[in-house]
Amino acid sequence: MSSPIIQVHVPTTPTVPAPRIALAERRPLVGPIRIGLIDNGKPCAKELLLLVADRIAERVAEVQVHLISKPSAANPITEDEAAEMASRTDLVVTGLGDCGACTACSVQDALLMERAGTPATVLVTEVFVPTVARFADVLGAPGYHHLAVPHPVATKPTEELERLSGLVLEAALDQLGSREAASVG
């Protein structure tokens, strides 16, 4: 009888850096604006994303929201899905990154949107900010921005989610558009 074979994978940093991703052009946040939300299905993710969109709508006139819900937080959207979302949105918020794999996939979703020409950002809990930095660097966008809220989100009541959406509003506006001509509602 032969011995079973165990294969060990050792994660290493790529020896050749990923090609740099050019971020999408940021435009003034003047309505009408079509906001895309990429919900990864984590508990309270959709609710928090929608509340962030509501906060943006309080500051920018004429907002329309397009939501896609992924079947799994453990997989990024496809390039075709990014192209389709880009064709109907002006900016995108992805999330919620509250574990390693879902954060990595949410970062990749945001960068796919950037490559498709749509400004994006990723919503994560504070403990996964280093994960955003690491994956953004590996994917060719060192220093990529994010929106961070306290961990955990999954157990928060609606009132607390509303408060969290207010905490990230200014950063969302800064990351998704050029603020100098932003309309205030």
Structural notes for this entry:
It contains five helices and five strands. It is α/β, with parallel strands linked by helices and 185 residues long. The protein has one domain: Rossmann fold, CATH 3.40.50. A five-stranded parallel beta sheet has the order 2-1-3-4-5. Helix 1 (45-59) packs across helix 5 and helix 3 (100-115) crosses helix 4 (129-138).
Lay out the secondary structure:
Elements: E1 33-39, H1 45-59, E2 63-69, H2 79-87, E3 91-97, H3 100-115, E4 120-125, H4 129-138, E5 147-149, H5 158-176
Parallel strand pairs: 1-2, 1-3, 3-4, 4-5
Structure summarized in a few sentences:
By secondary structure, the protein is of the alpha/beta class. It is 37% helix and 16% strand. The chain has 5 helices and 5 strands.
Shape: globular
**Biggest sheet: strands, sense, closure?**
5 strands, parallel
Strand order of the largest sheet: 2-1-3-4-5
- Our Rg estimate from Cα atoms comes to 17 Å
Query: Would you list the SSEs in sequence order as H and E?
Result: EHEHEHEHEH
Number of helices: 5
Contiguous runs where pLDDT drops below 50 for at least 5 residues: 181-185
Question: What is the helix content?
Answer: 25-40%
**Second-tier CATH architecture:** 3-Layer(aba) Sandwich
Key features?
185 residues; alpha/beta; Rossmann fold; 16% strand
